[in-house]
């Protein structure tokens, strides 16, 4: 068993001063009945905890570390920019460079606004859609997570499921939630029904084009196409939340991979290369309603922060100039997720693997996982047991069943094979 004495002592101390000892719930390892590792440093594909345990990192800060931790080019850009000051709260050249870069990479994005988190990005995109259409209601999907703004904490995924309680948060007023309608992922009929029940009232449909917060659930054939069509017909703004998938599933995200153009897109952590960043953007006509051009107010003291922009521009430029990043992380995905699939099959274990490119989930259920209801059939104790075993063997996975595994450019085939060998040992094959 790994020595975790320092992490344990820090967790005891942390709980005295921070709710649950953590600054974001998933980090508490509550969903797997464990206590968290406190991370001291990260290097390429590895994490090191306070007790100096070295682990292969399959979280990558929940996505942004697509080049691996502490990539030398990103690190150098940050070291250089900090010499000139950490924040000005004023317009900078780097913000123009960043906006141009994002608009070049994504044909659906004609204008973009930087914010500081994915939560801010989705909250602002919805406000923009409402301001643009003059309508109030929105449709989201059960099991999709779009951050923690009030109106989106309705049947949300990620940590909200993992904690096993009702998926709605206390402290959200019925007023805030009443305009949020929920449909089922991969069930177009459920969307159609809402459109006919609330004719002319739907401002926006927001979804993860590949869901990753109930574990990874790919969209089935025609699901997104039909949503695109009904949004166009009904004058509803289609928002793809690409906080996880953007710049990962392809340079141009899921929208490039799947060939569907949303009206607005939201992005997050990957744009910041590990610094706190989010962004929302899309059609010029829609984005022009945002202040100071239009009546939809949205602002941020640290938005477009020079350090965050420098890190993000460097990571995005690297991705743009090195298409082999995608070839490599997708091939590693095939190796890892294909390998896990083979192992559970050989073991006759009641498990299923879903994956798209470099993100994937091993579900502890024998059902095909295609929506929130099927994801919830997973045996959470089974996952927790597997998670602890794998952590002890040096593979750091998401501390909850309903999350994705993330691969980076820094991972090697040898890392994957080591992880697969541990998984094979766990499943007894
Ligand atoms: N949207 C999606 C799809 C996400 O996965 C997340 C967080 N992982 C968010 C929004 C919220 O982003 P943040 O945690 O940066 O607020």
TrEMBL record:
MF terms in GO: glutamate-1-semialdehyde 2,1-aminomutase activity; pyridoxal phosphate binding; transaminase activity
Modified residue annotations for N6-(pyridoxal phosphate)lysine: 269
Subcellular location: Cytoplasm
SUPFAM superfamilies: PLP-dependent transferases
Catalytic activity, as annotated: (S)-4-amino-5-oxopentanoate = 5-aminolevulinate
GO cellular component: cytoplasm
CDD domains: OAT_like (cd00610)
Keywords: Cytoplasm, Isomerase, Porphyrin biosynthesis, Pyridoxal phosphate
Protein name: Glutamate-1-semialdehyde 2,1-aminomutase
Species this chain originates from: Zhenpiania hominis
